[in-house]
From TrEMBL:
GO terms for cellular component: cytoplasm. GO terms for biological process: L-histidine catabolic process to glutamate and formamide. It is an enzyme of class 3 (hydrolase). Pathway: Amino-acid degradation. GO terms for molecular function: imidazolonepropionase activity; metal ion binding. It holds the Pfam family Amidohydro_1. Gene3D superfamilies: Metal-dependent hydrolases (3.20.20.140), Urease, subunit C, domain 1 (2.30.40.10). It comes from Salinimicrobium catena. The keyword Magnesium does not apply. SUPFAM superfamilies: Metallo-dependent hydrolases. This is imidazolonepropionase. Residues 88-218 form the Amidohydrolase-related domain.
Amino acid sequence: NKEAYLDLLVNEMMPKIAEEELAEYVDIFCEKGYFTVEDTHKILAAGKNHNLIPKIHVNQFNSIGGIQAGVEHDALSVDHLEVMTKEDIEALKGSRTMPVALPSCSLFLSIPYTPARDIIDAGLPLALATDYNPGSTPSGNMNLVVSLACIKMKMNPEEAINAATVNAAYAMGLNETHGSITKGKQANLILTEKVPSYGFLPYSFGANHIDAVYINGKKI
């Protein structure tokens, strides 16, 4: 009973989650056969009432108006985007919502990849993430994500690395403190082995060239 479940979320679970500070975001999968645009409006509005930041997983298989709903609720990000229309891209222009591509999901499910060039060439930013979950992407390998973005989505290495770092930080609401090696930000960074260029990282997709990892300025 989907309606009863939505009512449970809105009337019982969200207030408790907010009271106990168990989550920062509210997210919904807006797609045919799952949750409708109307469901999306209901859940995101309820989440915002409890100071939960809205996000949407949307346009994985169909374009049904979910992106427009996300923009209306000032969603921090819209994730998946394997299917994008001109109207979807236009809806994102002028918004504060970050488009997020999940290429390892496309690899695992053998579905189309997010049309990165259409999004970027329209003047929009793009972030990259794994969609790590047991159902459609059982991998948290960001090295693979960056490689797939270049190989399958026609992003250049600069775009892919930018999408996986500072743009990804924005999609989590962390760009003021994370996502780039910048004075005043958290010193969370990786050092690679000697490579010919940073473009070699997505090129050598089967290798891990990380030499050291620093968290809060300390090597781990």
